[in-house]
Specification:
The protein has 812 residues and is α+β, with helices and mostly antiparallel strands. 29% of the residues lie in helices and 25% in strands. The chain has 17 helices and 41 strands.
């Protein structure tokens, strides 16, 4: 039986299913799976943060059981299962998931290896300081509150959100018929983009991308290529390629090992190790001899290689066959006015700005109302204090409070609220000091009211408040970028994945080469004993040394006149005390070749020349562009006589002057114009005449009047002399005295006052010392001590260190 109010209606099952499914879909989209564009939170996340804020779980308060938090959320706000609440809580506390975690966890919250968290009865949590900033001012009528699921209490429909949480932490969610996948970004860069939009609302996406270059994942790694970033910034969709970070380390036994220190976002570390192990087992990575996972809180996966195997090739194989390189499909989809909307980066940032404008406007109205209410009471106090005796008389003559209130309001222009406040005054508040406090409070309130009204009435002031508050929070929580951006493989250059930094190239007497960061050597005072430089491996010692930048080309000039060209980063890196790699494994050298000189260049410019000098004093000039078509097998640089060999080469501009210094302490200075450009495969002309038997040219330098010539003897004695002390002569003469000492010359350099030099000895000692510690003296003087040598040790080489900050260290 049907009642009068009920009726039966025939409808298609298809129609019913469509309607029900649409209702279900909208419920999932709006109330579960998608974040709000304003605060970047899904409903369950917002309920967790609000519940924790309400029960006082601040970042500076003790942790509390997660079970208590889950219970609070379930009991008051979330009409779903406890596991969904706990999973959301855990995710907000995982530092490898959240770029800026909102939950401060205590206990087992899982791991990047995919380990599950402990049950919520074992774990504890509290809000982070950043999460508190999302909730700040929620009690000042800044956001709308809606009834909870059973209408017993209320919950916020959005939180005030002082930081751009949606783009700062990202979000992922699968709804019905749509999905969102927003990557995290760097807070400092987001703030710069927001400031840019506030300053110039008409700015373009290109302008925004200059200050917000791309995602910044909590797990670091590198993003290959800008195509995907450019696409999602403009359209809201794009695919970003992420690759982990790995480097090679040299082992004592001459082998290399690859160390993976960062993995892509959302990649399971344990699964990655298993996948690499499978590749080793299947002989895909045949170069690997051992695999170890040495990770703790930080990732460290060690892949030991067989002797002689190249690390870069193995890294590329791992990237090809494992999730060490993976993709992140970006979809910038969020709820805008409770409707799902795919937005570009500017639209998302504008949603946050508009939300903050609304929050600050409502907060200002709230504070203004409170200030005006208080000012209204204080105005009543002022009237009462000005007529205190009369008020006391009226109150004493009244039978009760109501009569006193009516008589006061009849005589004075006071409202009922003011009169009640006056009647509530305590006697001590009528003292002189308290009256002054009331006057001072009223003056301060008037200033505050004026400021609050200016925010409401002036849009630019309101936007200024948004910027000021955001900048203050950013300074408090700023964090360096973790994910590096590099070109894609199509636009790939090795220089883009290798830091451009100063390094020292050393080549030992027995032909071992290595590249060592300049920072490995400490700066010491003149005369210091130094630190062990290269070790004394089987009586080997450093014979050639050079400073360069990793992105430069380095030209190796052999003693027989051949030239090899390599990128500096191709030189194997070693530690300060490591032996290095045999030069024959780096260069395709011919038999009996030894390195005579090395030159670092940025490019093969036609405006530059190479001047080479041999042991017998033969010099030759060639245009640098002649060497740009270099080959791995080397090219001829100068033709050398049978009893001669190349000792050095210099870059010149065509108008320089050159100085040759011989082992017996003689020198000659002549203009470069005395030399004409010759082809690569030519002999050259005489530069200096050697008179003493056994004498040879030890160094060739380019004259620079802003520098001095530093000459070092094998006994550690040296000096600096102005170039004006060396007169210009014609090429081919015997020269003049450069150093008066019983010792032979070990080397010579053109140096500036603020330069530093590296000095190496046969015994393997190394001293890095500032040039200014060596005073400038005359050409024919003996000099001062540059380095304290051990018994039977001699100085073998000296070179300049460029663009290195001094870092004073103790001697010895």
């Amino acid at each position: 039986m049907y009642t009068d109010k009920e009726r039966l209606e025939a409808r298609s099952i298809t129609e019913i299913m469509e309607t029900a499914y649409i209702d279900y879909s909208m419920s999932v989209i709006v109330s579960r799976a998608l974040p709000d564009a304003r605060d970047g939170l899904k409903p369950v996340q917002r309920r967790i943060l609000y519940a924790m804020n309400q029960i006082g779980l601040a970042h500076n308060r003790p942790h509390k059981k997660c079970a208590a938090v889950v219970g609070e959320v379930l009991g008051k706000y979330h009409p779903h299962g406890d596991q969904s609440v706990y999973d959301a809580l855990v995710r907000m506390g995982q530092r490898w998931v959240m770029r800026y975690p909102l939950i401060d966890p205590q206990g087992n919250f899982g791991s990047v290896d995919g380990d599950p968290p402990a049950a919520y009865r074992y774990t504890e949590s509290r809000l982070t300081a950043i999460a508190e900033e999302l909730m700040r001012d929620i009690d000042k009528d800044t956001v709308d509150f809606v009834p909870n699921y059973n209408e017993e209490t209320v919950e916020p429909s959005v939180v005030p959100c002082g930081l751009p949480n949606l783009l700062m932490n990202g979000s992922t969610g699968i709804a019905v018929g749509m999905t969102t996948n927003i990557p995290p970004h760097n807070l400092t860069e987001l703030t710069a983009a927001i400031n840019l939009i506030i300053e110039n609302p008409n700015c373009s996406i290109d302008d925004i991308m200059e200050v917000l270059p791309g995602p910044d994942f909590p797990t670091g790694g590198t993003i290959g290529g800008r195509a995907g970033i450019d696409q999602y910034m403009r359209t809201g969709r794009g695919i970003v390629r992420i690759k982990g970070t790995a480097h090679t380390e040299e082992l004592k036994n001459g082998k290399e090992q690859i160390v993976i220190t960062e993995i892509p976002y959302n990649v399971n570390r344990a699964n990655l190790v298993v996948k690499i192990a499978d590749l080793v087992h299947d002989k895909v990575l045949d170069e690997v001899s051992d695999l170890r996972d040495e990770s703790d809180e930080n990732t460290r996966i060690v892949i030991e290689l067989k002797r002689g195997e190249p690390g870069r090739v193995v890294i590329n194989k791992i990237a090809k066959h494992t999730p060490f390189e993976s993709s992140f499909g970006v979809i910038l989809l969020a709820l805008d006015s409770r409707r799902p909307k795919q937005m570009n980066i500017k639209e998302m940032l504008e949603c946050f700005i508009e939300h903050r404008r609304d929050v600050i406007y409502r907060r200002t109205q709230y504070l203004l109302k409170k200030a005006e209410d208080r000012a209204h009471i204080l105005e009543g106090y002022k009237i009462a204090l000005m007529n205190l005796d009369d008020f006391v008389k009226i109150i004493r003559a009244s039978k009760n409070r109501e009569e006193a209130k009516e008589r006061i309001m009849e005589k004075y222009p006071l409202t009922e609220r003011q009169t009640n406040a006056i009647l509530d005054l305590r006697l001590y508040q009528l003292t002189g000091m308290e009256r002054e406090k009331i006057e001072e409070e009223y003056r301060e309130l008037m200033k505050l009211i004026e400021y609050l009204k200016s925010i409401i009435d002036n849009e630019s002031i309101l936007l200024g408040v948004i910027r000021e508050e955001l900048n203050t929070l950013t300074e408090k929580f700023e964090n360096p970028r973790r994910t590096q951006l590099i070109p894609a493989e199509g636009e790939f250059r090795m220089e883009d994945v290798i830091a451009n930094e100063g390094c020292i190239i050393t080549v030992s007497h027995k032909g071992f080469v290595k590249r060592t960061p300049v920072s490995s050597y400490r700066s010491q005072k003149r005369g210091g004993k130094g630190v062990i430089g290269t070790g004394q491996h089987d009586e080997d010692f450093v014979e050639h040394l050079f400073t360069a930048s990793t992105h430069d080309y380095i030209m190796f000039f052999m003693n027989n006149g051949r030239v090899y060209v390599e990128k500096v980063y191709e030189i194997p890196e070693g530690t300060r005390i490591s032996k290095g790699r045999s030069i024959v494994n780096v260069l395709q050298m011919q038999k009996d070749e030894k390195i005579a000189s090395m030159i670092c260049i940025k490019e093969f410019a036609e405006t530059q020349h190479l001047v080479m000098c041999t042991k017998k004093g033969i010099v030759k000039k060639t245009n640098l562009a002649e060497y740009q078509n270099y080959r791995k097998g080397g090219t001829i640089g100068i033709k050398i006589d049978e009893d001669d060999e190349l000792i050095g080469s210099k870059l010149t501009n065509g108008d320089n002057e050159l100085v040759l210094v011989t082992r017996e302490g003689m020198s000659i200075r002549f203009p470069e114009t005395d030399l004409r450009d010759q082809g690569r495969a030519t002999r050259g002309v005489k530069g200096v005449t050697l008179k003493k038997e056994g004498d040879c040219v030890k160094a060739i330098e380019v004259v620079d009047q802003n520098t001095t010539l530093l000459i070092a003897g094998e006994n550690g004695i040296g000096k600096r002399t102005e170039y004006s002390e060396y007169r210009t002569q014609s090429r081919g003469g015997s020269g003049i005295i450069a150093l008066k000492t019983a010792s032979k010359v070990a080397g010579a350099l053109s140096v500036h006052e603020d330069d530093e030099v590296m000095m190496f000895t046969v015994g393997g000692q190394a001293v890095r010392s500032p040039v200014k510690g060596v005073r400038v003296i005359g050409r024919s003087t003996q000099g001062v001590r540059l380095i304290n040598l051990a018994k039977d040790d001699t100085l073998v080489g000296i070179c300049r260190v460029v663009e290195v900050e001094d870092e004073e260290a103790e001697e010895g």
